[in-house]
Design a protein that fits this description.
Blueprint (H helix, E strand, L loop, with lengths): L2 H31 L5 E6 L1 H7 L19 H6 L2 E9 L11 H18 L4 E3 L3 H9 L3 E8 L8 H9 L2 E5 L22 H13 L2 E3 L5 H10 L5 E2 L16 H4 L2 H4 L2 E4 L3 H4 L1 H19 L4 H13 L6 H15 L4 E3 L19 H10 L4 H36 L1
Parallel strand pairs: 1-2, 2-4, 3-4, 4-5, 5-6, 7-8, 8-9
Helix pairs in contact: 1-15, 6-7, 12-13, 14-15
The protein binds zinc ion.
The site of zinc ion (ZN) has 4 residues, from loops.
């Protein structure tokens, strides 16, 4: 063997194995960290996926569910410590079918029964302290968030009853605007109405987090200027990197630190990859053109399938790019994870389901993040936000009691 080849193989022998090992090391380090801090995800749509499959009896959550992004085995493999399960309420309930409030109640019921059915692994959590207690006991916390403010049906009494059931956040809108809050699909500047501001104040008084994912920029800004407690974006990414209306623009991000809130990064490919977003936009345009030209639905479906195969893919590293970007703009104390698993149909390569969270943490460690910063993004930030909201609620109630006593 020639001299340079010997030298070269020596270099390869030294570098290749150590590189392969280091990737494993980051994952091992991530798993070690997640034994000491509960990883809490801001948004998972498994309750609606279970409903669509016919309810709790149709899905055994304790065995591997290859068609779902979430089950107990995957949650355990992903070292998940707490999950906000979405009590998602379709906007179509505003037109027909069960009332939005009934739909929300049924989903809250489903979440509680899901949690009760697997007591070895899951436990309900209604406060930050509950999450920490469950984590120490080796259980995954189940937290409830309602997705869609139409669930309260313009009634503060209904809002109070949802809070009494243990709901810890309400996403003010879904895809359609309400009379009191404007959705991201609305380009008009309208934000919160006077009643919308009342809803925000009442949520603050109750310790229910105001979730600004899905609302438009006007509502985001109004809510941030109205709230007395930290707000959250339970599943939104950074618009500076991906120009999607569901993501948060810099002008809003800059308001978050003073509010003390949190932006929890969504993994939806169209929200984290500009290439995917542009492609998805163009697909919609092409589908519209075909429909307008009278193409029948089978031909349309086939065309969409063919286009879909050619679609660009988002990657785990792009989700990490959003987390890195948010850290730079809002600061590391205001960033979290809000996967949207089982609410999205496509996933980034490397982040296919809830078992992959440690890979994302490993990527941050590989980028030079400290263990302390990783712990914040994984869980301690959202625990602080929950605790701050609980403190605001307690202080407000104490003040109300004092005022009553003076009367
Ligand atoms: Zn959503």
């Amino acid at each position: 063997m020639e001299g340079w080849k010997v030298a070269m193989s020596a270099v390869l022998l030294c570098t290749v194995p150590s590189f392969a090992l280091s990737a494993q090391d980051y994952r091992a380090q991530a798993l070690r960290i997640l034994k000491t801090v509960p990883l809490i995800d801001g948004h998972n749509d498994i309750p609606d996926a279970i409903r669509e499959r016919g309810g709790l009896d149709s899905v055994d959550f304790a065995v591997l569910q290859p068609k779902l992004m979430t089950d107990i085995l995957k949650l355990r493999a992903g070292a998940v410590g707490g999950q906000f399960w979405a009590a998602y309420v379709p906007v179509t309930t505003m037109d027909s079918g069960p009332h939005p409030a009934v739909y929300a109640l049924e989903q809250i019921d489903l979440i509680k029964r899901l949690c009760a059915r697997y007591p070895r692994d899951l436990a309900m959590a209604y406060s930050a302290a509950d999450v920490e207690r469950n984590f120490t006991a080796g259980k995954i916390s189940c937290l409830i968030g309602i997705e869609g403010g139409h669930a309260i049906e313009n009634s503060l009494g209904t809002l109070r009853m949802f809070a009494a059931l243990g709901v810890r956040y309400i996403t003010l809108t879904h895809w359609r605007s309400l009379s009191w809050a404007t959705a991201s699909t609305d380009t008009a500047r309208r934000g919160l109405s006077a009643f919308g501001r009342e809803v925000v104040h009442e949520m603050n008084r109750l310790g229910v987090l105001v979730d600004l994912s899905h609302v438009n920029d006007g509502t985001m800004s109004d809510a941030l200027h109205t709230a007395h407690a930290p707000v959250m974006f339970s599943h939104s990414s950074a618009r500076a990197l991906t120009h999607h209306a569901r993501d948060v623009p810099d002008s809003i991000l800059r308001l978050v630190p003073a509010n003390g809130g949190i932006v929890m990064v969504n993994f939806n490919p169209g929200f984290v990859s500009e290439g995917v977003r542009v492609y998805e936009d163009s697909l919609e345009g092409r589908a519209r053109a075909l429909r307008a030209s009278g193409t029948d639905s089978t031909a349309l479906r086939d065309s969409l399938k063919a286009w879909h195969v050619r679609a660009p893919k988002a990657r785990l590293q792009q989700v990490a790019d959003h987390i890195d970007y948010l850290r730079r703009v809002v600061g590391v104390d205001h960033v979290g994870l809000g996967s949207d698993f089982d609410g999205i149909t496509e996933v980034p390569v490397g982040l296919e389901d809830v078992s992959k969270f440690p890979d994302l943490i490993a990527e941050l460690l590989k980028r030079g993040w400290t263990e302390q910063d990783v712990r914040k993004v994984a869980g301690t930030n959202v625990l602080r936000v929950l605790r701050d909201a609980e403190r605001v609620a307690a202080a407000g109630n104490a003040k109300a009691r004092r005022t009553d006593a003076q009367r």
